[in-house]
What we know:
alpha/beta
Amino acid sequence: MAEIIIHQEKIADVDAVLKLCPFGAIEVNDGKVAINAGCRLCRICIKKGPAGAFELIENDAPVADKSKWRGIAVVAEVTAGKLHPVSFELLGKARELAEKSAQEVYAVVFGFRLAPVAEELLDYGADKVVVYDQPELEHFRIEPYTAALEDFINAFHPSVVLVGGTTVGRSLAPRTAARFRTGLTADCTILDIQPDTDLDQIRPAYGGNIMAHINTPRHRPQFATVRYKIFSIPEKCRRDGAEVIQRKLAPSALGSGIKVLEVKPKPPVKMLEDAEIIVAAGRGVKKPEDLAMLHELAELLDGQLASSRALVECGWAPAGRQIGLSGRTVKPKLIITCGISGAIQFAAGMNNSEFIVAINSDPEAAIFKIAHVGICGDLYSVVPRLIERLKGSMA
Ligand code: FAD
């Protein structure tokens, strides 16, 4: 850990110093120049400020005793009594990591009336299912959920905490990680583990141009979030001696500034992530009206229409239909890409699909490197022929 300390006596012009920081992290507190939480350690104040006024101090943080932090924990997510499937995917990965590093797998779950959920988690290979089953936890509210996860970590000391990259997970994981002053890697796409329980957290960085390997060698636990559909759901397999452990939060930990007045279920929408067949449209489509042709192809296959970011940026497709690094991650049985170049940021969201068919007029298009079947041609001639064939086979 590093911090910037200030030598007040070397600052003559306070107003000039306050303007130095592009993040507004320099302020005056009790008549003294101070650094606030906005500091990004960019060091501009050291370079551009009065000579010697700002100094970077490197403090070596103590290394956690890794032998006291054991177990791979998965935060299972429940909404209206149903487990989010990312919980099962994470349990599959947790089991793999646990086998490699001789650790146990925990599933921890918060909610109300959780008995069936706990049984289901046992079926997916957790050694211990830790349950916080209290009426106040029925709906997600950040303060009691954070308190519950904190309680779990303090009680069981897992070395790794895996959280789904969902709306709930993206809120809960960083807040809890901050309480333990430990690292969190968001949206990991690959996870591996060292025998000393250091987690290799791998994710695309710099717009998908590199795969960053991130480690947390000095702190425990190690937090990682993973999006839905990155890993596969494992086969059901109950472990010998697997057990459910009930824990309760004290009433003082259950308080929240959020009051749930009413829960209105959203009308069911077809989630792109759940589609088994996807037809994806890219910039090779020349006019928005032409998407009707791809829509027809998707319907004939009983699939869903998706797009690259190019069409979302044109306003021709909604953001929720975008596949890729900054969109959805999908893993359908079949995806047909139409006029999509296969940029790394698009491929990152679909390259785990079971069967990829690419239609592109450019024989050099990158999409052909990941496609199982490539059709080099004009989508305006290939797609209508596919539609004809499908209609013919249905007649
Ligand atoms: P293009 O790259 O323009 O490709 C069009 C393709 O259509 C070409 O290969 C061309 O040969 C082919 N074509 C043209 N006419 C025809 C025809 N008549 N018949 C058949 N083929 C034809 N992109 C995403 O998609 N998803 C993301 O999540 C995403 N996130 C990003 C995040 C960052 C940080 C950055 C920097 C970029 C991101 N991008 C993302 C953008 C990405 O880099 C590409 O620009 C984008 O994927 C290109 O979309 P495209 O393949 O539809 O268009």
